[in-house]
Amino acid sequence: MALQQQAHGAGLTGDRTAVDRLIDTAAGLISRVDDDLPWGNACRRTPGYLEVQRATCYGRLGLGREADSLWSQVLDAVPAGARRDRGVYLARHATAAAGAREPEQAVEIARTAVKIAVETGSARMRRELVTLERAMRPWHDAPVGRDLDEVLAPVTEGS
Questions:
Q1: How far apart are CA 105 and CA 100, in angstroms?
Q2: 73: which of 24, 50, 90, 121 lies 20 to 30 Å off by Cα?
Q3: Cβ–Cβ under 8 Å, residues 122 and 87
Q4: Model confidence over 105-126: pLDDT tens digits?
């Protein structure tokens, strides 16, 4: 957990090399995670957990193509019953698309994330969609920004 948190820090400071090194090191330690600790085994019970962390970091680094590829892989592996995780990952994928200056793609991905957020009532997903909304500010007055407002309306109305 400490290594993946360090990777997020490296992502925030723009150090892709450190992100990859830290995530790769963490991957080598997964077999040593103690499943009896209720807070410490997400990396073993969540398919693609470390690639989710890497994709999140890549999105923050502005590595749109790389983040998009990772999010596609991660989403292909999410079990059907893990709707909340899928919605969170979709929201992060949309945010990465916005960061890569692909606002139309971000809005299209957000459509599915919002549908899941409404169905599940997930507060975590709503927080991720607020992050997307901030990432899309450069297009706020453009047609794609208005499209995003419409897409997000079911989860932002009354907020």
A1: 10
A2: 121
A3: yes
A4: 999 999 999 999 999 999 999 9
Q: 80 burial class (0-12, 13-18, 19+ CB within 10 angstroms)?
A: exposed
- For position 2, what pLDDT does the model report? 86
CB neighbour burial string for 55-79, b if at least 16 within 10 angstroms, e if fewer: bbbbbbbebbebbbebbeebbeebe
Using one digit for the tens of pLDDT, what is the confidence trace for 12-40?
999 999 999 999 999 998 888 766 666 56
- Nearest-Å Rg of the Cα atoms of the chain is 16
DSSP code per residue over 55-70: HHHHHHHT-HHHHHHH
Can you list the pairs that 94-97 forms with residues at least 24 positions away whose Cβ atoms lie under 8 Å? 94/132, 95/59, 95/128, 95/131, 95/132, 95/135, 96/55, 96/58, 96/59, 96/64, 96/67, 96/68, 96/71, 97/64, 97/68
* Signed CA dihedral, 10, 53, 65, 115: sign only: negative
pTM of the model: 0.89
Structure tokens belonging to residue 114: 């919002």
